[in-house]
Automatic annotation (TrEMBL):
Keywords: Endonuclease, Hydrolase, Nuclease. One of its GO terms (molecular function) is endonuclease activity. SUPFAM superfamilies: DNA-glycosylase. It comes from Streptomyces ureilyticus. This is Endonuclease.
Length: 226
């Protein structure tokens, strides 16, 4: 049992060392519990929800920011064509027109219901994660997978959601031969933040080469220890 635990710890250490950064960080979002970074993370979750490469969704999140659509008000005030153009700049062309519409509608809803501030949505849920999930799903384009993506990222600042290791993260754990119990995985990861661990596991779920590389590195570490 100890050997298995040692092996799992080595795999997680190798995974986090090579791939331990959140998708928000990759998108250039300095996540804090303030309206703008929370909103940008929400937009990223909408984009990542589509059947499109994660790198394209992340690049498009950056492109929207660089085009000035940094919060719900600016997103709502932008024209539909401006949103389409920014998404295209990020390479998000397959779903750009539909997504541009959803982003506009989502921004309007967020402004009307919560003054453009996701912290007010959080306050409305009052610590009830099921209620928070339900409220998030009211945002156009944010289905169950998108809600999981958002909570996976914001658990860094919304601690009531931690540890949030969703189905995609647990799929990554399975591919690496790790246990699929969130609490066990977090314990094995030591001081690694759950959001960082979750993002690294998701990358393993999405990329076979990452799995192969991490397992190879973990095996090399084991040999060096022996």
């Amino acid at each position: 049992m100890a050997r298995r635990s040692d092996r799992d710890s080595r795999v997680i250490e190798a995974l986090v060392t090579e791939h331990g950064r959140t998708f928000a960080e990759e998108a250039g979002i300095k996540l804090r519990n303030t309206p703008q970074p929370l909103y940008r993370t929400l937009v990223m979750a909408v984009l990542l929800s589509a059947r499109i490469r994660g790198s394209v969704a992340v690049a498009s999140t950056r492109a929207l920011y660089e085009a000035g659509m940094r919060d719900a008000r600016r997103m709502a005030d932008a024209s539909w064509q401006q949103r389409v153009d920014a998404l295209g700049e990020g390479g998000y062309r397959r779903y750009d027109e539909r997504t541009a519409t959803m982003l506009g509608e989502g921004a309007e809803l967020l402004l009307e219901r919560w003054g453009g501030d996701l912290r007010r949505m959080r306050d409305e849920a009052d610590g009830d994660l099921d209620q928070l999930r339900s409220l998030l799903r009211e945002i156009p384009g944010l289905g169950p997978a998108g809600v999981d993506i958002f909570l996976r990222e914001v658990q860094q600042v919304w601690h009531e959601a931690a540890p949030w290791l969703d189905a995609k993260a647990l799929q990554g754990a399975e591919r690496l031969g790790l246990p699929k119990e969130p609490d066990h995985l977090v314990k094995l990861a030591g001081h690694t933040e759950p959001a960082v661990l979750a993002a690294a596991l998701v990358r393993a779920a999405l990329d076979k080469e990452i799995v192969e590389d991490v397992l190879r590195r973990a095996e090399e570490r084991a040999e060096n220890e022996d």
